[in-house]
Write a structure and sequence with these properties.
Elements: E1 2-6, H1 12-25, E2 28-29, H2 37-44, E3 48-53, E4 56-60, E5 67-68, H3 73-82, H4 88-93, E6 100-103, H5 110-119, E7 124-129, H6 132-144, H7 150-158, E8 160-163, H8 166-172, E9 178-183, H9 197-200, H10 211-220, E10 221-230, H11 235-239, E11 242-243, E12 251-257
Helix pairs in contact: 3-5, 5-7, 8-10
Length: 259
C-alpha cells in the first residue's frame, strides 16, 4: 500500500498538491503532523510513502534510500542535442522532428526526455511505467521540475505518463501507432550503481522482456523498435535485435528496422 503525505508544516499549495495526487491516483492522503517517517510506516502499514514538499516529490520505501525525480543525464544529453551533438539512442532510432515515440519502460524518464527534445513540439512521447509508485513520481516530477533551459523544461511537460504494463498496452494498440517503440529494461546485473539507479531498483519492474512484447512492438512501430541493453547480456540475440556496432561502449542499442 502506498500513501501520500507532506512535510511537517505544509503550505496551502503543498497540501493542495498532495490532495490532488491522492485523488487522481486513488491513494490515501495521511496528515503528517509531527510524525517521523518510520512512524508513518508503522502507523499506516504502508510499504511506500510519497512526500510532497516545496517544489519536490520524494518516494520512500522502508530501509531503502530516498528516490527523488531528477532529469540526471537526460538533461546533459538534451543540452548536447540542442547544440547539434549526436546521441547514440537518437541515431539508432532515427528519431526526428514530428515523430511519435512509445517508451515502454519509463523508469525516471531519462530517455523519454531525450526523445521529447529530439522530436520537438510537433512530436509526441508517451511513457509507460508498470510500477504505480514510479509512475506517480515520474508524472509529478515532469510536471513540476524546472531546468535552466526553458526548451528542456517544456519538453518535460509534453511527456505523457501512463501507469500500465507495456505488453497489455501494446496489445491494445492498432498497427503502426507510433514511429518508434523503445525498451530500456532494468539490467539484471547493473553496469554500475549510481545514486539515481540504486534507489530505483526498489520499485522498478525487474522482469526480462518477453518475445511477445517484441512481436507486439514490431506490429505497433512504423520505423524502429529499439532495445537498450548491457553489451554481452545475450538479450539482443534472444530477442532478434541488431546491435548498433559501437565497439567500446558498455551499453548498446539494439535495432529492429520496421520500415
Amino acid at each position: 500500500m502506498m500513501i501520500v503525505t507532506t512535510g511537517y508544516s505544509p503550505s496551502e499549495p503543498e497540501l493542495a498538491r498532495a490532495k490532488k495526487i491522492a485523488e487522481e491516483s486513488g491513494i490515501r492522503l495521511v496528515s503528517r503532523g509531527r510524525m517521523s517517517i518510520p512512524k508513518l510506516f508503522t502507523s499506516t502499514g504502508a510499504d511506500a510513502v510519497l512526500i510532497v514538499t516545496q517544489g519536490k516529490v520524494r518516494l520512500l520505501r522502508q530501509d531503502h534510500p530516498v528516490l527523488e525525480y531528477h532529469p540526471s543525464m537526460g538533461y546533459v544529453r538534451a543540452k548536447r542535442l540542442l547544440k547539434g551533438e549526436p546521441d547514440p539512442m537518437i541515431a539508432a532510432s532515427r528519431a526526428e522532428a514530428g515523430d511519435s515515440v512509445l517508451d515502454c519502460t519509463a523508469g525516471l524518464g531519462t530517455d523519454s526526455l531525450v526523445f521529447a527534445v529530439a522530436v520537438g513540439t510537433q512530436g509526441r512521447v508517451r511513457a509507460l511505467e508498470a510500477s504505480p509508485e514510479l509512475a506517480i513520481l515520474l508524472r509529478e516530477g515532469l510536471a513540476s521540475y524546472e531546468v535552466e533551459k526553458p526548451s528542456v523544461t517544456e519538453a518535460m511537460r509534453r511527456i505523457e505518463v501512463l501507469r500500465t504494463d507495456h505488453l497489455d498496452y501494446l496489445q491494445s494498440l492498432p498497427d503502426n501507432s507510433f514511429d518508434i517503440v523503445y525498451f530500456d529494461p532494468m539490467f539484471r546485473k547493473p553496469v554500475y550503481d549510481s545514486s539515481g539507479i540504486s534507489p530505483l531498483r526498489a520499485f522498478a519492474d525487474a522482469r526480462a522482456l518477453s518475445e511477445a512484447s517484441i512481436r507486439e512492438a514490431r506490429r505497433v512501430a512504423r520505423k524502429t523498435v529499439i532495445l537498450k541493453e548491457k553489451k554481452g547480456s545475450g538479450e539482443m540475440e534472444r530477442l532478434g535485435f541488431a546491435a548498433d556496432g559501437r565497439e567500446h561502449a558498455k551499453i548498446t542499442y539494439g535495432v529492429i528496422q520496421v520500415d
